[in-house]
Design the sequence.
């Protein structure tokens, strides 16, 4: 089966209607979950180094961990609450359906995009297979170059990261060339890169925009704050509207009212059967 083609530019669908003001999302200065969130990022920013990321890419790039279907992986996320998220305190599986349904309402003709909403966080299963959450969840950032200002807690959590004292990695470009392209940048290890690897290894029949959205949806310093543009290629800038389109549903569909998963399950299983069927290698 050939992959569907996406439009050249990301479509501008209707905006999601969040249950609270948009400025209240991603609040990293106050809130009942702030201590938990800060601890997660402190560990992440201490241990995510060039060496660590290369080790994890080698460890998981071959997708030899286990075999299971996409829906089975989603059910595992019933057990996971993301400790980096200041906005929700319920299992990640519900968030997957919230995101997918928001996209489905706004883009009813793009079933492949609905599926992207459902599976964008499936890489978080790593946290159930022994990885600490700081190596799975949260915003991503490039390793091997200077940390930009918009990285969450970036001004107070990197002091014990050895890469910040390595002259090879402490300049604006670090170990990269100008406009080398994000595909050539080592991102902090987490669920984005892992799920992208799973999609590639198992040959999901989705457009390349889907792969790109999954790979960089947690790169908030870039897609939301405009940092790291000096590393971007023309292709990255072409893909940016797609990442932003996913992001607004990933973020603004989060609410305490949870979806009826059993009612939705049949539709999304049909999309899995269409684009990534059967037992997958993880």
Sequence:
């Amino acid at each position: 089966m050939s992959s569907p083609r996406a439009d050249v530019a990301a479509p501008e669908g209707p905006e999601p209607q969040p249950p609270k003001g948009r400025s209240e999302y991603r609040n990293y200065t106050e809130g009942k979950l702030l201590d938990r969130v800060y601890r997660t990022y402190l560990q992440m920013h201490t241990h995510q180094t060039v060496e660590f990321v290369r080790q994890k890419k080698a460890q998981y790039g071959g997708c030899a961990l286990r075999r299971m279907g996409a829906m089975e992986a989603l059910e595992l996320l019933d057990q996971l609450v993301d400790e980096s998220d200041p906005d929700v305190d319920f299992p990640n599986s519900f968030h997957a359906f919230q995101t997918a349904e928001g996209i489905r309402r706004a883009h009813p003709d793009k079933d492949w995009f609905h599926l992207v909403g459902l599976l964008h966080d499936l890489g978080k299963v790593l946290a159930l297979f022994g990885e600490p959450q700081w190596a799975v969840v949260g915003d991503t950032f490039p390793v091997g170059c200077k940390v930009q200002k918009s990285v969450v807690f970036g001004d107070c959590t990197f002091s014990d990261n050895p890469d910040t004292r390595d002259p090879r990695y402490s300049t604006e470009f670090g170990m990269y060339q100008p406009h080398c392209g994000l595909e050539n940048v080592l991102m902090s290890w987490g669920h984005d890169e892992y799920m992208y690897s799973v999609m590639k290894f198992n040959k999901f029949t989705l457009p390349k925009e889907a792969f790109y959205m999954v790979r960089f949806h947690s790169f908030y310093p870039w897609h939301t704050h405009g940092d790291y543009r000096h590393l971007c290629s023309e292709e990255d800038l072409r893909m940016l509207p797609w990442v932003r389109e996913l992001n607004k549903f990933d973020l603004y569909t989060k609410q305490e009212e949870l979806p009826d998963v059993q009612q939705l399950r049949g539709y999304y299983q049909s999309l899995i059967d269409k684009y990534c069927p059967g037992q997958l290698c993880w």
